[in-house]
Each structure stands twice: as C-alpha cells, then as structure tokens.
Amino acid sequence: MRGPGPDADGLVVDGSSEYAAVPDAFQRLWTPHRMAYIQDGQQPHADDCPFCVAPAMTDEKALIVARGEHAYVLLNLFPYNSGHLLVCPYRHVATYDQATPAEVAEIGELTQIAMRVLTAVSRCDGFNIGMNQGRIAGAGIAEHLHQHIVPRWALDSNFFPIIAGTKAIPRLLGDVRDDVANGWPSR
Ligand SMILES: [Zn+2]
What we know:
Bound molecules: zinc ion
Number of strands: 7
Strand order of the largest sheet: 3-4-5-7-6
Shape: elongated
Order of helices and strands: EEHHHEEEHEEHH
Helix content: 25-40%
C-alpha cells in the first residue's frame, strides 16, 4: 500500500492508513453517475416546476432531445426503460383538457416523431404511451402536463422490479439523449 506523498505525476496521494476506517461485511457498489439525481434535486418544490425550468437550460443539461413551438421533448430522469421520453407543453398547465388546440396538435406530432426516432435508434418492439392526470392517478409532477413515451422490448421485463422494487437501466441518460437528439429530424 502506498504511503502519503507525491506520486510519479506530482499528484499528492493520501495513504488509506491516514483515514479512520472500519471494515465491515458490506460490499460497495459505487455509482457516481447517480450523483445527478442528488445534486440536481429529485424532489422539486411546488413553486419550482422542473418542466418550466428545463427549457431555460441547455439541451444536454436538461436532457432535452427536441424543442417545438408549443411543446418540447426530454428524457425522464426516472426512466422505466432506456429512452423513456416525456412530451411537455411549455405552458404550466396541469391537465390535458387545459391544453390549447395548438399544444394538443404539437404534443401529438412530437409523440409520433419520438416513436419513429426511438424505433430507429433503439430497435424497440413497442411502446407504452400515456398521461397520468392528477397525483391520485400516479403523476409524479401533477402540476405540469406531460405525456410518457416508454419504449418496450420483447424481453425488457425481468424479476428485479418484483423482488427489489428496482429497474435495471442499461444505458446512461446522457448517452441516450445524444442518440435520440442526433436521430431527431431537423425541422
Ligand atoms: Zn411547469
């Protein structure tokens, strides 16, 4: 084990003996990519709507794959599957019946394009598409309308959700965003 002091590149490396540590029976699964969930705040305040904040950020930061005139498309930070997209109007409206005809039309158009792009880039076999209207119906962010587009593969269900309440997501969000954004047709 190395002791403290500069290494060959001049970097100061601390020896582990410098730190208090008590070995235990647990193995560590290091998941630094999950810091995005913690640092960026996974539980927004009611007055800090993430779907209103996202369009002001860069596409990469907000995981946006396409922007329309009345609505935009971004990756869900809590995906059911790789490529789980959300289509949101820019306006802060809660339910589908509050959307204007122009918003309804563009949400539909963006949903169709998203299906084609996901089919092309991820070779999915099907989709679950829908909106949870109201918190009682399962909407995580009930205050701002959003349509889910969840790509499905023939063998994407496994025993993880049943035994552990856990979904295995094989790809990182940034990589999926890049693929979908690059596959999106230019307007
Ligand atoms: Zn909002």
